[in-house]
Amino acid sequence: MIMGDLISIHPSDLKFPFELRKQSSCSMQLTNKTEKYVAFKVKTTNPKKYCVRPNSGIVLPGSTCNVTVTMQAQKEAPPDMQCRDKFLIQSVVAPVGATNKDITPEMFNKEDGRVVDEFKLRVIYIPANPPSPVPEGSEEGTPPRTSVHENGNQNSCFDDALSVISKLTEEKSSALQQNQRLRQELELMRKDISKSRAGGFSLSVVVLVALLGVLIGYLVKRG
Fold this sequence. Notes:
Strand content: 25-35%
Order of helices and strands: EEEEEEEEEEH
Largest sheet: 5 strands, antiparallel
Shape: rod-shaped
Number of helices: 1
């Protein structure tokens, strides 16, 4: 805010959201701090670029006048988004009961010995789509804070993961036990096969020996 002898001006700079090929507006408030009628006039270094409504008027004692400044659509952005345009706000004591129709250029002429308050305002461009703000607490080396909702989701996902891991562990244990049982059964089958083979071989030998004995006895008797 700019404080003068007659009026106060808010804000102290004119900030325009800047976007190519689109108009942009901002406003300022002129407040009469005195008990007198105050006339004001708004000038700019680039009148073709800006439209000021109202560009002059009367502010009654203790009242406020809103002034809207519209910037025409721009085809290109200035280097580094720096604007050199400026506005000049002039204010002077006006006769009691004066209206907007009573304002003349001579009222703001210092050569007549009038006290004219003047204030300069800069023009600042603000990107229309600023980057997203950094989450609170996410300074360098410090992780950003997470909300209760995010923590709830994380806990839920963690519980689901534990459940899946537990289920997989049980299935693996069951598969190992089944595999071990199959190996034991296979080993028993191998032993049974070996026994049956061994038993078959002994019986054949016995039979063969018996046949040989009968044959030898027959030959001996015949001889």
